[in-house]
Every structure is written in structure tokens, then in C-alpha cells.
Amino acid sequence: MWEVNEGMGWWMVFGGIFWVLFIGALVYLFATAFDRGTGSPQARAETPFDIAKRRLAAGEISHEEYEKIRETLSR
Which pTM does this prediction carry? Predict the structure, then answer.
């Protein structure tokens, strides 16, 4: 009449694992959905080479100055 083991023990374990994985997947999806902007070129830090290229393109430095900077940074 009061038999406790009716086969529900394993389902309870798998059910717990399922919910942990499900909530973990939701957290992962929300974290990646709201973190998409950090991979954009504007959000990442510029390297010294990027700054030198930008300054050359803007006409702030000459090609010779750019080559000098590039040579210095590559050492």
C-alpha cells in the first residue's frame, strides 16, 4: 500500500538535471544576446597600428612618418 519506490526516483534525477541545463541555456542565450555590441570595431580597443593607419588615412601624418611608426612598433 505505501510502497515508496514506484520508479519515480530516476525521473526526479533526470528532471532536476533537465531544469539545471534549461536554466543554464537561458542564461547563456540572454548573456550572448545582450553582449553582441562588444564585438563591434567601435567597442574594441584600437591597437597602435590601427591608430597609425587611421592617422595616415586622415592626413595627420605622412607616409614616411607612418613607416617610421610601423618599424618602431614591429621591434
Answer: 0.42
